[in-house]
Amino acid sequence: MTEAFVRAARTFLDAHLPPRAPRSATDRVALLEEIDSAREAETLRAAKRWQALLYDAGFAELDGERAREFAALLAEYEVPDLQPLLVGLHIVAPAIREHGSAELKARYLPRLLRGELTACQLFSEPDAGSDLAAVRTRAVREGEDWIVTGQKVWSSGAHHADLGEALVRTDPDAPKHAGLTLMLVDMRAPGVEVRPLRQMTGGASFNEVFLTGVRVPDADRIGPLNGGWKAAITSLSSERAALGGAVDAVPPDLVERLAEQARRRGLAGDPAILRRLGRLRAALAAARLTGQRADLDPAAAASISKLLVNRAVAQAVETASAVLGPALAADTGDGYAWTEFVLGSPALRIAGGTDEIQRSILAERHLGLPRDPR
Ligand SMILES: Cc1cc2nc3c(=O)[nH]c(=O)nc-3n(C[C@H](O)[C@H](O)[C@H](O)COP(=O)(O)OP(=O)(O)OC[C@H]3O[C@@H](n4cnc5c(N)ncnc54)[C@H](O)[C@@H]3O)c2cc1C
Model confidence over 118-127: pLDDT tens digits? Predict the structure, then answer.
């Protein structure tokens, strides 16, 4: 069974992807690299093409052993970056699958999973981030539609999204978690305005989204009226699991490249640098191996992995700063986007629920410790 799967997967990959080229010390390695809008558009096109191929061949939704086998095979090929589709695939699709009506699933799931539709997550607001249930964007019923008005923020990829998964308040009189509903907003509908937010890395990968009297058919509601919190939790858990797997996005030769930089600067024998490099290797291995542990509750594993990945990335930033010093801001010629790595890394411990929130989740839900005062 497994052998047949691997054979079929290899035939498929051979037919569609070139083998992975050997990396040299000067190859470009995207490490939280910012890209311009032309490259972003090309990445999106390539992601859509690749996801459609995966979906049509039955490789888009693998889990367990098959997912691991397929991922191992992929490492041998030059694989298009699926980043522009990840919100749709890992955040929005799971909520539709678990909470959506049969009609909603039929309308959106295949096109989301095939990468035909892109999506963004319209959860956070200026006064609702960690305290997400405080969202104030209102939806008021009008016939068969909802009229949605409010402001969302930090909406990754909203500038190229077809759909927005919006958490909105439908009952302002209910206790805050009980008055929320999840719905799919057509990002091209009248009243949707997307404004880019410039980050300190120089890029603008997320946005403010202003919703002014946007009409959303009730048929595009995900899950029951005022049952949005539970549906949103499905998206958030799935996002956390995906972010916990982010260690796979750290290039495997990161430590070697830093060691090479240390050698070039005459720091190869420096005990403080060696200790940092050793600790970094251990932190990356801990994050990778924790992601593979089968004995942990998957929800707890997602929070733990996300914390471990963030710790490893923080150590990588410290190590890079110690090794490169002011050269961090220059082109080191080793292909790494070091400046963007350092400036972009704080985003990891904020996105998808901050480190503090992950620790509270672990303490309260998984260790049974007393709840935070609210
Ligand atoms: C790269 C990136 C992409 C993102 N993409 C999206 C997206 O696509 N869609 C979307 O809706 N949102 C997105 N976000 C927003 C993200 O979910 C929020 O930034 C995050 O939940 C934190 O909310 P906040 O920024 O309002 O900070 P706050 O909630 O105001 O937190 C500020 C600080 O207080 C701490 N804090 C707050 N409450 C507690 C508590 N109870 N206990 C202990 N400490 C606490 C936090 O840990 C943090 O350090 C993204 C964020 C980033 C960085």
Answer: 999 999 999 9
